[in-house]
Design brief:
Number of domains: 1
CATH class: Alpha Beta
Number of helices: 5
CATH superfamily: SPOUT methyltransferase, trefoil knot domain
Shape: globular
Number of strands: 5
Radius of gyration: 15 Å
Largest sheet: 5 strands, parallel
Structural class: alpha/beta
CATH architecture: 3-Layer(aba) Sandwich
Strand content: 15-25%
CATH topology: Alpha/beta knot
């Protein structure tokens, strides 16, 4: 199953980019034997200043046709890493593509959020969307490691 991170904004060179690239490479290596990956990031940017609705339209176009759609949203489900790994297995078994959507500073357009198959939260705190990418990439790698029986996750 291909994994797509569809995100608002461009992540520049720096520590967040290094972490994102590292965790996605780890996910690809570990997940390959499990039918997970590769993972790719699609960045969109609303240069015309259309706000949340314009970002939502750009994000919707970035999601592959027929993909399972998961939005990252503070109102989404809270789950443990093993629960996320289990959910990832279920998505893999039902879909060819899985798209995670991370909105911009104002969040995700309600119309796009309404189309989502699932909503995921990293807790009640609000996280910078650039850091949320890294956190998602780390959780993808952690989930693959859990499913592979690797030592990375220590419960």
């Amino acid at each position: 199953m291909r994994v797509h991170l569809c995100v608002v904004g461009r992540l520049r060179t720096g520590p967040e980019r290094l972490l994102l690239d590292d965790y996605l490479a780890r996910f690809d290596r570990t997940g390959r034997a499990l039918g997970l990956g590769p993972a790719q990031v699609t960045e969109v940017e609303d240069r015309k200043g259309g706000g949340m609705a314009a970002e939502g339209a750009l994000l919707a176009r970035a999601v592959p046709e027929g993909a399972t759609l998961v939005v990252l949203d503070e109102r989404g489900a809270l789950m443990t890493s093993p629960e996320f790994a289990s959910r990832l297995t279920g998505w893999r078994d039902r879909a060819r593509d899985l798209a995670f959507v991370i909105g911009g500073a104002d969040g995700i357009d309600p119309a796009l959020r309404g189309r989502a198959d699932a909503a995921l939260s990293f807790g009640p705190m609000v996280w910078p969307h650039m850091l949320a990418r890294v956190m998602l990439a780390e959780q993808l790698y952690r989930a693959a490691s859990i499913l592979a029986g690797g030592p990375y996750h220590r419960a």
